[in-house]
Structures are given as structure tokens and as C-alpha cells.
Amino acid sequence: MKEIMKNGLSLFLKTLVILIMSFILTISINVLAIAGFTENIGYNAYVSDENGDKIAEYTHYSADGDDTELAEYEEKGYTVQKNSIRSELKGKGYVISQVVTQFLSLVILCVFVYNSLFVIGNKDFNAVKFKRQKSDILKGLKIGLVSVIPYFAVYLVCVVCAIGVKPDLPISLFNLCNFYIYQILVAIVNGSKYVGDLAVWQFILILLSLTVIPLISCGSYILGYKDVFWFDKFIFKKKK
């Protein structure tokens, strides 16, 4: 049990790295999606005098026609800095960005978890083979469950808050703590802002989403324990 707790803690620390990587990935793909699926609809203008002091600011939309204010300020010798405004990312562009981001985040998660649990499973396979320890085929699942204890604790806090303690707790806080499945959680909460707004079925789905790491851990450990190198098998089949 001590070894399972140790490996579970180690896996939890790795998931923190995955959270950071998923966060960076989400921002990067969002920037690309905005550039590819939205358009300029106007700009925010900031007017400053010759000393660099801001004297005015305004918003101009392309649909309003020519920007007469801009011409007036420039005629007076003022400097006008413009920051473009993009249209909202929605429809096909939004769906594509969300699906791609979630897929890549899960790939990153699988790679990290697989590499760790496969090694442990393969090591245990050899230890059992030479009768140095007893077989425990569910060891990977146990390690995975230990690793998500902190995430489950946050989930319980949200449940307690939802039933009356603090129903206005932003659900986004929970989503940020589980960024490797952020897009899945966004789909589940379906626009709800606070934990008190969530229905029972939504809490059930959120709880099920927390089983992603334990399930990957379980499968990866079993592959290692069975000495199955799935990547090698995939390459071999492709060559055939």
C-alpha cells in the first residue's frame, strides 16, 4: 500500500505538469482559431497628445462606416493607436478548436500516464515472474485513484457548496483545476456559471470525467504487466 501511495503521489505531480501544458496548448490553439475563423469588426482607438498623455478613447466598428473621429484627431496632430476587435469565435470554428484542443490534451495525458504506469507494470511483471512479489493486476487502477484524490476533494467541495454552503462558487474554478479535461467540463456545465446552477446529472458526469486518469493508469499498467508493447505491435501491423 505504501508503494501505491508513493506512485500515486508521483503521478499526481505529473498531472500538474500536464495541467500547465494543457493550459498553454489551449491558449495557443485558441489564438490560431481566432486568427483563422474570425474577422476584424472594428477597433478600440486611444488618442494621445504630443507628450504621450491619453486624452480620449473610443470604439469604432466597421459596420458604422468611415471613422470621422479618427480624421478629426489626426488633423489636430494627435496620435491615435488602434487595437483591432475580432468577431466572436463560434459555430464551426469554436467546435473545431474545442475538439482539437481536448484531443491533444488527452494525448498528452495518455503519453505521460502510459509511460509511468507501463514501466511500473513491466517491473512488477518481472518481480512476479521470479516470485519476488504477489500479482496485483489492479495496482494501476489503485495508483490512478490515489493520484486523483486532490481533484476528487475539489469536486466534493463543489458539491458541498452547491447544496447550500456557497452556491455562487464559480464552476470555472473547478474547471481550471482539471484543465486536462477542460473542454469536456465546459460541455458538461453547458454555460452554467456557478456550482449551484448545476443539476444532479451534471455532477454525475463531472464525477465520471474524473475517472479518466484511473482508467488510463489501469490500462497502461496491465499492458506493462502483460509485457504488451502496443506501439511496437502497431508499427509491425503497419509494415505488414
Describe this structure in words.
This protein is mostly helical and 240 residues long. It has two domains: 2-33 and 92-225, no CATH class; 40-86, no CATH class. Helices cover 65% and strands 10% of the residues. The protein has helices at residues 2-37, 68-75, 91-129, 139-147, 149-165, 172-177, 182-189, 200-209, 212-225, 230-239, and strands spanning 40-48, 54-61, 79-86. A hairpin with a 5-residue loop joins strand 1 (40-48) and strand 2. Helix 1 crosses helix 4, helix 4 (139-147) packs antiparallel against helix 9 and helix 7 (182-189) runs antiparallel to helix 8 (200-209). The model has no long low-confidence stretch (mean pLDDT 88).
Ordered list of secondary-structure elements with their pairings:
Blueprint: H1 2-37, E1 40-48, E2 54-61, H2 68-75, E3 79-86, H3 91-129, H4 139-147, H5 149-165, H6 172-177, H7 182-189, H8 200-209, H9 212-225, H10 230-239
Antiparallel strand pairs: 1-2, 1-3
Helix pairs in contact: 1-3, 1-4, 3-9, 4-9, 7-8
